[in-house]
Amino acid sequence: MQAAPMGMAAPMANYGQAGYAQATPLAAAGPGSANPFAKTQQVTIPTELGGTIIGRGGERINRIRDDSGAHIVLEPTQPGQEERIITISGTEQQIHMAQYLLQQCVRSSLPQQGGATGPGGPGMREMRGPIGGRFR
């Protein structure tokens, strides 16, 4: 099973027609299992984003689990490891929702670009440009 990178959007060529990473059936999803439609998907994140996804006291990851209905497990960090594996299990819809919520969590943690920081801030000076225009 190949893990899909998380954070910045990967090229669509690495994904299926719907734009989602391919999911593979869980071993436990055989005949007689509780959910015959259950699948599993693994994604990777940079190790330093693990705390961002988990949140204070597990608050954020628990909210993602509740909102998506998926079972989500973050692999423990190993010394020198640059990436962390997240395993998401559930129905296809639950997996897609969990992936979306995880991506939103990662995106919200990235520094914002191009903010106008007050009338004399660097963003405003760049927008005024050489003609010295003003914003009101």
TrEMBL record:
Region of interest called Disordered, as start-end residue ranges on this chain: 111-136
InterPro entries (UniProt xref): KH_dom, KH_dom_type_1, KH_dom_type_1_sf
Highest rank taxon of the organism: Eukaryota
Residue ranges annotated for the K Homology domain, each copy included: 37-107
One GO molecular-function entry: RNA binding
RNA-binding listed as a keyword: yes
Record carries keyword Lipoprotein: no
Keyword entries, A-Z: Repeat, RNA-binding
Name of this chain's protein: K Homology domain-containing protein
The organism's taxonomic lineage, starting at the top: Eukaryota, Metazoa, Ecdysozoa, Nematoda, Chromadorea
